[in-house]
Specification:
The chain is of the alpha/beta class. Helices cover about 55% and strands about 10% of the residues. The radius of gyration is 23 Å and the shape is globular.
Length: about 400
């Protein structure tokens, strides 16, 4: 069928034509936004899940909900190299300037701008680097101690008080939270904790890999009482069918039952893979129906594409030792998988694997779902490893 009218949207953070199977989380987010707006406290939301399950898409959806609800929003993405303070500063500056432009002069907003300015001083970077208004005088002695947990808490509090004073709400969204350093994570948790205690109208929603609850707990033991960590997983067979069928139906195209079953079998219900299979099956189909035959012919193309991009970009960042480790994981047939099994497969003592295991965790390729256990952060990565290194 015509590629131009293809409704499917494989990509990173690209909104799917049908956001299937996430209603519960959207409902929870709606409650969070409504409660904080009404001055009630509520646990913040941190979405966790493997690569490509739809965390960013959901984060953006909740951000749109917040905007529709009248919140001023800030959206940032942490990277392996970024620093939290530098990332946040220009966005908070913009948010405060927006509050400043609202009707009525507010001393709290002016104060928050000054606190932000001194926060930048504490970061030891120049004002120009992060685009904070040079016309504002720093509030010396506040948020400039150089200790991020103290300074960020002061800054968030000032921002929350400014929003409260203007009768507005602020919502802060942070993606890829697992890349924060332990200090940054600890500081963020403390700052959010303080805002919740003071019932300031600031909502926090984060997203990242399934390592997050553990990382948060390691930084601050009370984190579990501060956050809800809904886990986004693969979609059920029924929701997977919806994700494919609804967009096709909207374009007047039917999808055969066997075709749906085959797509589910191939994708295991992982959202990114559903979009890839839907996209290619659409291109291979002729007439007004996506048949099993179209899906089967599309599969070879999809696997080739995934191997060349989605899986390959991750594979190419690995050392030989890391590749061998991940390949051995693919051969282990025990679930849950333990490091000891990998050591056995590689024929090396368990102790020798510590560094490579640590570097794979640091690269966010694997994580530990429970003590002593291992899993890939990328769905279906084991099958890819077997194709990449056949042996
Ligand atoms: N609920 C859903 N139903 C159908 N498709 C979805 C759903 N959620 C996400 N997708 C699709 O899955 C793909 C991946 O989404 P997204 O980039 O949000 O995942 P992610 O979890 O943020 O991945 P990563 O960890 O790599 O950042 C996109 O193509 C998106 O359109
Ligand atoms: Mg993402």
């Amino acid at each position: 069928m015509d590629t131009l009218t293809n409704p499917f949207s494989p990509g990173a953070g690209t909104p799917p034509p049908e956001l299937a199977g996430r209603q519960q989380i959207l409902d929870d987010a709606r409650v969070l936004l409504a409660r904080v707006k009404a001055g009630r406290s509520e646990k913040s939301l941190v979405l966790t899940g493997l690569r490509g399950v739809g965390k960013t898409v959901l984060l953006n959806t909740v951000a749109s909900m917040a905007e529709a609800d009248g919140y001023r929003t800030v959206m940032i993405e942490v990277t392996e190299k970024s620093s939290l303070g530098t990332l946040l500063t220009p966005h908070l500056s913009e948010l405060l300037c927006e509050l400043d432009r609202m009707a009525g002069v507010s001393a709290k907003v002016r104060r928050a701008l000054s606190v932000l300015r001194s926060f930048v001083g504490g970061l030891k970077i120049t004002v120009g680097e992060v685009g904070v208004g040079v016309d504002v005088e720093p509030l010396r002695g506040t948020a400039d101690s150089g200790d991020l947990s103290i300074d960020l808490t002061k800054l968030f509090q000032a921002v929350g008080e400014a929003a409260l004073d203007k009768g507005a709400g602020a919502a802060i969204f942070i993606d890829e939270l697992q890349y924060l350093s332990q200090d940054e994570f600890g500081a963020l948790i403390m700052a959010i904790h303080r805002m919740q205690q003071l019932r300031l109208p600031v909502v926090f929603v984060g997203a990242g890999l399934p390592t997050l609850p553990g990382l948060a707990g390691a930084s601050k033991t009370y984190a579990e009482r501060l956050f809800n960590f809904p886990q986004l997983g693969a979609l059920s067979a029924e929701d997977s069918a919806k994700a494919i069928q609804e967009p096709a139906a909207a374009a007047g195209v039917a999808v055969g039952k066997n075709a749906l079953r085959e797509i589910y079998r191939k994708t295991c219900g992982y959202p990114y893979f559903l979009q890839e299979w839907g996209y290619q099956a659409w291109n291979f189909a002729s007439g007004k129906t996506i048949t099993l035959d179209a899906v089967s012919r599309a599969s070879a193309r999809v696997v080739e594409r995934l191997d060349q991009s989605f899986f390959r970009v991750r594979f190419d960042r690995l050392t030989t030792g890391e590749k061998n480790f991940l390949r051995a994981m693919a051969d282990a047939d025990t679930a849950p998988l333990r490091t000891g099994v990998v050591a056995e497969k590689l024929g090396v003592p368990l102790g020798r694997l510590g560094p490579v295991r640590a570097s794979l965790i640091k690269k966010s390729m694997i994580y530990s779902p429970a003590y002593g256990e291992l899993a890939y952060t990328v769905p279906l990565f084991g099958e890819f490893m077997r194709r990449a290194i056949p042996e």
